[in-house]
Amino acid sequence: MCVPPLKRVKVMRGQDKRESFVYDGETVVPYGIRNIVVADGLEEIPAGAFVDRDDIESIHMSPSVRSIGDDAFADCPNLNEVELNDGLKKIGRGAFVRCTSLWKIIVPGTVVEIGEAAFYMCGLLWIVELNEGLLKIGERAFGRCCSLLSISVPGTVRVIEAEAFLECKALRGVRLNKGLEVIGRAAFANCCYLWGIEVPSTVVEIQRWAFGYCYLMKKVHLFNGLKIIGRYAFWGPTDVLVPETVEWMEDGAMAHVREDRKVVRILGETLYRWMLEAEGYPESKVEPKYCRINCGSDFVIPKVMSFLGGNPRLYLSNGWGEDYYDETDEETDSPNPYFIFGM
Questions:
Q1: Which segments of the chain have a pLDDT < 50?
Q2: What is the pLDDT of residues 5-46, one digit of tens each?
Q3: CA distance to 34, 71, 113, 337, per residue, from 92 (Å)
Q4: How much is the CA Rg of the chain, to the nearest whole Å?
Q5: What angle do CA 193, 185, 239 make, to 5 degrees?
Q6: CATH class of 17-217
């Protein structure tokens, strides 16, 4: 007698045995539903609608949905498929935070805002597609998505907010398109496999720690138009040409450029604004007294810096705790081997 193989079925107390459920925004979705289909006509997924549901595996949005509320699908550990349709405009704060099985997300071109921590700590998320039309990537939006391999930021995005891609440790490719203006604080900090970056000419400010702790960073391409480079913005690139349009470069902007690496090259007449000790005084009236650069490689200082003569006190830290001082009365004669004048 042939006995058919037994099927193993897991039944939970109080569990609804239907596979799918059409969600209309009012009816409570019973536990045990694996697939959610949003009904046509519903325009908003309410805040916290499906928070902390370990039974949901997929969600399919209707084209009528305009907004996904804050924490709508937060802490859904088994959610692995999300289908977003054209018509959606906003993904709220923490909408998919800690959805640790989610591996792919395609954001349609109608979305203008991805909220703070929208996909924060989605550990398996390795494919993210952003489309033209997106205006804002919120703070920590994709932070600690440790499987994310590459990202292309659309040219319609003006600001990448703070920590937007913080600690995306598998990130190897970043494409920033023309139109971007500000790279926020620690936006790509601790992306430890990121080896190069090309910053488009439309960017005017790179904030503090933007690429901090990117230890493998080798090539940094900056273009005229950039004005501000924040503290510890870059962490040890091998070759950087700072554009002549830069007006302010904070302490340690090129931190930990090691002595065996190439020269960090400086251009431009506004270099004097980097003298941070003059902060708070009219730049036209006060000649800076201290110059803090904080790197261990040579710095090429152009001829426009000859005003550093007159017994200036130049302070240089190589990033490893050693300080060098130069107190010379000669305007162009510097015994400090870490400075090259007149280039």
A1: 1-17, 258-263, 268-343
A2: 333 323 333 444 458 899 999 888 999 999 999 999 999 999
A3: 22, 7, 8, 54
A4: 26
A5: 50
A6: alpha beta
